[in-house]
Task: inverse folding
């Protein structure tokens, strides 16, 4: 039981890798840096597998398995230990995070080869892995928050990795600051939790919540749920805080795959699922999760329809898929949400890595209008990306089919037909924009200069991870395939002890359930087929049609193309007023004008003092003195007259 | 009635610091020019002796000098903070004074004598004694602020500091007189029995507050801060932004903690001042392009967070305020020391542009500065996060939800400008002309200070328990 006793080893491995490469990597050869970084993440994955083996021997009474290493924050009766926890949910997350992360580390040794900041890149990547594992293994909210902020920091460093591009640095900052808005809510949520339960560790909090009645009207649990949701919305790029994720695509593609698709952005979903007990007891907050998720799923998909940057299409697709996960949690199907999180980690990581391979092959080109006909030139990339596309679009037997089905089924069965309808519409859109991408990139005639660009398949270190992920994108779904399709529903049963089973499930007789499942699956397949056919007709059969449609429906097209002008709206409503206040009001007016003005009007003594000072070239000391007098007058007046 | 031996014993740290300060000053004329730098050893020895004495005296808490002085766990906490700060400032200053070609002896003497005043403020249980401490500390810091005699800017700012400082001290003294008039005493325990509704006492406490608010640089009495912090030599700025501020907060805390009328009267003023201070500090920092000035505004903002704890007014809140003061001192000392080093001779390189690409020229230095900045921003696993965390929790416990929300909004604003420095260091191309600027290696003393403050910032972030227990004990002194 080595790892169960010493859970910290799992964290120490990537941290050691980050420290080694961060401190000495500059002086090492590429091989050494590779060995350290890939070794650290590979060992972490091996440790996760060993943890799984050991975990299987635990009895239900021993769960959740918590190991506390030292007391971290102690203030009065408040206490938060540096404590790690393993239960079924943690285990799934740890396996997905370390596994995908290891593959992406390997891929990166090819993709990033020759980059000036090679060692720095891997140091950040290992650091990210450390914080992500801390996030999913923490046994209390404050420690989870440490990981939460830590992944944000590593993400910031990695988005801005190519700092020569100003846009990259700005995107990093945007991501960090937008996330802080959500984090602010998250932190308040933790405070409120502690305030209510005088504890912040999962075991005590959830035990206390289970004793409470379900809140039919907004109460303290609803407030906690909504505040936690605010954090999750920021981290998982949901409406209205999604704006940072598309810009985050400025980072290197492996980073987009690992952090902005497979792992970090799913942290919000993890937190909602982790807090399942709270949300189940606060139906209003849970409904908010469902509505936000569902709206985001459709909203982001519509933007994805018209984008032309290969990575941005995928970014909007990620936002949309995260929306499905929120939808699942919101209708009580937490296990389905985590299931989709897992399959999405496989196929979206694959999509990004394949996109990276395309970009690599074309020497840095990211605009799909200048691609085309790559099918035969980079067959491995094409094949694997096609698999991922089939998976995300929900082609039968591929992983996304099972997980998205589970979500849509849950939405319908829970009685939220409208959400189901929107979710199905989202599925049509998903199939459309994904096949549009495939057709524009790999089919048709090349739209780039074939003389200038030497198209080449990526090296083995890059294609092998693609193939592994492609296999996972297919079989990953079978793990949780429902009985209807001959599966054993393994994942859902595995997760049931941690995640509450949806209440509506019990209301259905088994036969009715199967019949409904079958009908809904049929609808989902139809939706996917519809999206596929539309893309096939528009981009393969009638390639001149899309431009005509865009011209005919110019207004809605421009709206989508400009992403509903949300960035502009935020700039006008939030960013500019703040800077204006800082620059014009506090800097020019208060520092210069108000204080000087006050001097002209008030305080005769100060003026005389100032006149003497002026001779000593001490410009505005007199106004400062006047300011002090004004302040003093206010404070004195306040104390003497107002306060009783 | 003469003071007994225990009286002196309970003031031993200040006495030792004063003795060493005087020795340094007396020795200075007799040393040859090239040996004067060695005085730094003597100065540091003095600070270390004071630290040792503070630990020694800890076991013998109690009043001294007819209840003018109170040696209790609260005093102990602040003595640790003040003398440790003095020690670190002197350690880092030696290389700076060499580089700027400034005299050594006076500097160490002034730092020591100034910390005597701050120690007296921390220990004082009577308002006139507070005033004496305040004057001792202020006079030293006025001179220190003008230490670069040739620099026009430094002189200008020092003069402002002196004038406005005297102005504020006058407020304080007048307030003390009124308090005395209202209650017939200046001893805090006895003032505590005064009736809050008496006009004279109200006025007196208002003026006392204003005087101290000036010293902690809280809005609207902060106006001197940016100029003075920017103009003073960077090691002095490191001192100014930490030790005297901590001493003034100590007086505020002691009055708020022991004098019930003050606790009641000050509540809304503390509330308003906290909110205003945070916003003024953070919003004004947003547009600064001079790193030293930006850090000055950030100091103002941080005073606002500490005021939140004061407004909360519970024992846990006072403990949080003390913890915050220590955490804040570590990161600010480190940051200003680093700014002093990076600014180069004559403190010319202070703008953000000068920090562009620093991470590639000096990765360790850049990483260290990032650590301080992230801590100031309040990122978990750093001292700054826990400082805020404790303050916020205490504020919520005291049902100050509105103020805590304002404070949390302010941490968001802070993220913007701290991050901008990191952005420049890591994500900007250096101006090609700076590539040729000679890379100065970090001097040993500076390096030690940086190592100590960086380690402290991290350690307090990961293992805050020990310091927090000392802070809780200190806050319990007011019972």
Result:
């Amino acid at each position: 039981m080595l790892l169960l006793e010493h859970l910290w080893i799992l964290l120490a491995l990537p941290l050691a890798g980050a420290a080694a490469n961060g401190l000495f990597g500059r002086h090492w050869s590429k091989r050494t840096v590779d060995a350290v970084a890939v070794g650290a993440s590979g060992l972490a994955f091996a440790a996760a597998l060993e943890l799984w083996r050991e975990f299987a021997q635990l009895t239900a009474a021993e769960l959740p398995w918590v190991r506390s290493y030292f007391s971290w924050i102690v203030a009065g009766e408040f206490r938060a230990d540096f404590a790690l926890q393993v239960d079924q949910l943690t285990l799934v997350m740890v396996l997905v995070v370390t596994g995908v992360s290891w593959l992406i580390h390997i891929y990166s040794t090819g993709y990033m080869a020759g980059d000036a900041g090679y060692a720095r890149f891997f140091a950040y990547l290992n650091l990210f892995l450390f914080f992500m594992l801390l996030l999913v293994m923490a046994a209390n909210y404050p420690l989870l928050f440490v990981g939460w902020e830590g992944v944000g920091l590593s993400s910031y460093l990695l988005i801005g990795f190519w700092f020569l591009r100003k846009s990259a640095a700005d995107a990093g900052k945007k991501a960090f600051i937008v996330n802080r808005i959500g984090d602010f809510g998250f932190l308040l949520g933790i405070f409120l939790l502690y305030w209510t339960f005088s504890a912040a560790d999962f075991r005590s909090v959830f035990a206390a919540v289970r004793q409470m009645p379900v809140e039919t009207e907004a109460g303290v649990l609803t407030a906690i749920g909504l505040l936690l949701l605010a954090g999750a919305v920021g981290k998982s790029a949901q409406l209205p805080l999604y704006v940072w994720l598309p810009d985050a695509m400025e980072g290197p593609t492996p980073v987009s795959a690992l952090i902005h698709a497979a792992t970090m952005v799913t942290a919000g979903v993890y937190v909602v699922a982790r807090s399942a007990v709270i949300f189940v007891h606060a139906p209003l907050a849970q409904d908010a999760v469902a509505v936000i998720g569902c709206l985001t799923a459709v909203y982001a998909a519509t933007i994805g329809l018209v984008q032309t940057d290969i990575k941005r299409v995928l970014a909007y697709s990620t936002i949309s898929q995260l929306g499905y996960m929120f939808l699942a949690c919101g209708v009580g199907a937490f296990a389905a949400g985590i299931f989709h999180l897992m399959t999405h980690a496989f196929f979206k990581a694959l999509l990004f890595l394949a996109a990276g391979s395309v970009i690599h092959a074309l020497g840095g080109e990211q605009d799909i209008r200048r691609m085309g006909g790559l099918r035969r030139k980079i067959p491995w990339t094409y094949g694997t990306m096609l698999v991922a596309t089939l998976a995300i679009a929900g082609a039968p037997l591929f992983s996304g089919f099972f997980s998205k089905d589970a979500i849509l089924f849950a939405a319908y069965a829970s009685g939220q037909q409208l959400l189901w309808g929107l979710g199905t519409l989202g599925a049509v859109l998903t199939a459309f924009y994904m096949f549009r991408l495939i057709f524009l990139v790999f089919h048709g005639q090349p739209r780039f200069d074939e003389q200038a660009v030497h198209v080449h398949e990526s090296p083995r270190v890059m294609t092998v991870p693609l193939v592994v992920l492609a296999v996972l994108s297919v079989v990953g779904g079978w793990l949780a395939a429902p009985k209807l399709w001959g599966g054993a529903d393994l994942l859902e049963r595995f997760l049931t002890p941690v995640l509450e089973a949806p209440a509506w499930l019990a209301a259905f007789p088994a036969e009715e359930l199967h019949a409904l499942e079958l009908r809904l699956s049929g609808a989902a397949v139809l939706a996917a087929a519809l999206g596929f056919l539309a893309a096939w007709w528009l981009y393969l059969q009638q390639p001149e049609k899309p431009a005509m449609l865009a011209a005919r429906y110019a207004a809605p097209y421009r709206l989508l193309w400009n992403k509903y002008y949300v960035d502009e709206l935020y700039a006008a409503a939030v960013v500019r007023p703040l800077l204006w206040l800082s620059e014009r009001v506090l800097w020019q007016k208060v520092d210069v004008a108000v204080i000087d003005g006050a001097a002209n009007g008030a305080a005769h003594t100060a003026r005389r003092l100032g006149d003497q000072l002026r001779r000593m070239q001490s410009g505005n000391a007199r106004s400062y003195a006047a300011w002090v007098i004004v302040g003093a007058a206010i404070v004195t007046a306040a104390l003497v007259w107002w306060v009783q | 009635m003469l003071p007994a031996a225990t009286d002196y014993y309970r003031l031993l740290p200040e006495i030792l610091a004063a003795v060493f300060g005087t020795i340094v000053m007396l020795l200075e004329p007799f040393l040859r020019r090239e040996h004067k730098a060695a005085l730094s050893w003597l100065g540091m020895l003095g600070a270390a002796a004071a630290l040792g004495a503070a630990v020694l005296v800890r076991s013998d808490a109690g009043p001294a000098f007819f209840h003018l002085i109170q040696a209790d766990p609260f005093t102990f906490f602040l003595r640790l903070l003040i003398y440790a700060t003095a020690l670190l400032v002197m350690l880092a200053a030696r290389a700076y004074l060499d580089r700027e070609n400034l005299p050594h002896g006076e500097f160490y003497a002034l730092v020591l004598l100034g910390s005597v005043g701050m120690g007296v403020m921390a220990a004082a249980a009577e308002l006139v004694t507070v005033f004496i401490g305040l004057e001792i500390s202020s006079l030293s810091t006025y001179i220190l602020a003008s230490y670069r005699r040739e620099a026009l800017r430094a002189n200008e700012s020092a003069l402002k500091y002196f004038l406005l400082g005297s102005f504020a001290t006058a407020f304080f003294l007048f307030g003390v007189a009124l308090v005395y008039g209202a209650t017939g005493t200046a001893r805090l325990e006895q003032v505590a029995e005064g009736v809050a509704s008496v006009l004279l006492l109200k006025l007196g406490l208002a003026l006392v507050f204003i005087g101290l608010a000036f010293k902690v640089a809280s809005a609207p009495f902060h106006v001197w801060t940016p100029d003075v912090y920017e103009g003073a030599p960077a090691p002095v700025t490191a001192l100014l932004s930490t030790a005297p501020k901590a001493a003034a907060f100590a007086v505020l805390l002691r009055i708020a903690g022991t004098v019930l009328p003050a606790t009641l009267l000050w509540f809304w003023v503390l509330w308003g001042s906290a909110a205003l201070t945070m916003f003024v500090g953070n919003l004004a920092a947003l547009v600064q392009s001079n790193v030293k000035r930006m850090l000055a505004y950030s100091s103002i903002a941080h005073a606002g967070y500490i005021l939140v704890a004061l407004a909360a007014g519970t024992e846990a809140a006072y403990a949080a305020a003390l913890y915050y003061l220590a955490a804040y001192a570590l990161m600010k000392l480190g940051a200003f020391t680093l700014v002093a080093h990076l600014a180069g001779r004559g403190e010319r390189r202070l703008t953000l542009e000068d920090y562009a690409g620093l991470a590639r020229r000096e990765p360790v230095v850049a990483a260290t500065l990032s650590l301080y900045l992230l801590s100031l921003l309040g990122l978990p696993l750093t001292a700054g996060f826990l400082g805020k965390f404790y303050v916020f929790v205490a504020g919520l416990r005291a049902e100050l939800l509105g103020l805590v929300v304002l404070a949390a909004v302010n941490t968001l604003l802070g993220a913007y400008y701290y991050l901008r420095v990191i952005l420049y260091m890591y994500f900007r191309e250096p101006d090609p002309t700076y590539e040729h600027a000679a890379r100065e290696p970090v001097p040993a003393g500076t390096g030690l200070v940086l190592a100590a403050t960086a380690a402290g910032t991290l350690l307090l972030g990961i293992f805050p328990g020990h310091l927090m227990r000392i802070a809780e004990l200190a806050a319990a002194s007011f019972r």
